[in-house]
Amino acid sequence: MRFLTTLLAFFSGAWLIAQNYEPLLDQVNEWQFTTCNFGCITDIYFTDGDTLVNNKTYKILDGYHYINRNLLLRENTSEKKVYLTILEPQYTEDLLLYDFSLNVGDSIEMLNPITPFPPNGGYFLLDSINSLPLANGSEYRHFYFSPTPSNTISSNNAIWVEGVGSLSIINAPGGYPDINAVGHLSCSFKNTELFYSNLDSISACEPLILGVSEIIDSWKDIQLFSQPEKNHFLLTNAQEVYTISVFGLTGKQIKTVVVKNQSNLNLDLSTLKPGMYILKVKQHNYKQKTFKVIVK
């Protein structure tokens, strides 16, 4: 009986670990990538729709230098692996980019197709895995790699973040995130929600995909007003709103208010520390509008 209990506990624990994996690809993904050579420039790339190739479903990469839309991403969440397929100029079947099932001490061949890094970067060793908090306050695994002693191709280290990918560009798992060279990842969003941020070289992370300008135009009637009572605010025409999220300027989510069929909503922010905050007002289908407020 004791053996059976131990066995059940083992499989229960294994099931929980499997469930805790954060997929890299969501319905819509956006990455903002910053390079600082004689001034900083932030480029944006994103997934834009799905396509079917050889009976497999892929996300289409767009933006940045992916505007030809010939790079496709596919994820096997049960295996915790992410693959890249190149449609043109020559069809390339699935290349393994990421394997988040690796354990410390494992090695992997880093492929960096169509990047400033070596297309075949040689083998890297997984030196360590650390769980660190991201924008939503939850902890996600960070993978730290270095070239194996026999690797004569690459001399740089590499960093992956679960749910994000490389801290260099997405198709360079073996790339080192250097702001003064190729560049590094500044922001990553899933369905317009901030997931990862690095504000070393930019002031804030704001999503720019999903037709945000069109969404804002359709939300002109929603207004936010200060109330006579200190640090209280009134949101009007809120009948289609279902959540209001409060973010600090670092991008960390502080609280979320669920709205249920209220035309006008009173917001009490008096429990927050003095400073500036961003309110993200969200409707179904990812429609949203943001407001900046000052808590005194």
The helix-strand sequence is HEEEEEEEEEEEEEHEEEEEEE
- Arithmetic mean pLDDT: 85
Structural class: mainly beta
Give the strand line-up of the largest sheet: 6-5-4-3-2-1-12-13
Strand-residue fraction? Answer: over 45%
Shape: elongated
Helices, by number, come to 2
Helix fraction bin = under 10%
Number of strands: 20
Cα gyration radius (Å): 22 Å
- Tally of domains: 2
Q: State the distance separating the first and last CA atoms.
A: 61 Å
- Main β sheet profile: 8 strands, antiparallel
Spans of at least 5 consecutive residues with low confidence: 1-19, 211-218
Tell me what the structure shows:
The chain has 296 residues and is mainly beta. It has two domains: 189 residues, no CATH class; 84 residues, Immunoglobulin-like. 8% of the residues lie in helices and 46% in strands. It is built from two helices and 20 strands. Strands 6-5-4-3-2-1-12-13 form an eight-stranded antiparallel β-sheet, with no helix packed on it. Strands 7-8-9-10-11 form a five-stranded antiparallel β-sheet, with no helix packed on it. The N terminus is likely disordered.
Strand and helix layout:
Elements: H1 2-19, E1 29-36, E2 40-53, E3 56-63, E4 71-76, E5 81-86, E6 92-99, E7 107-111, E8 120-133, E9 139-147, E10 158-161, E11 165-166, E12 184-190, E13 193-197, H2 212-217, E14 223-226, E15 232-236, E16 243-247, E17 253-258, E18 265-268, E19 275-282, E20 288-295
Antiparallel strand pairs: 1-2, 1-12, 2-3, 3-4, 4-5, 5-6, 7-8, 8-9, 9-10, 10-11, 12-13, 14-15, 15-18, 16-17, 16-19, 19-20
Structure characteristics:
296 residues; Immunoglobulin-like; disordered N terminus; 2 helices; mainly beta; single chain; five-stranded antiparallel beta sheet
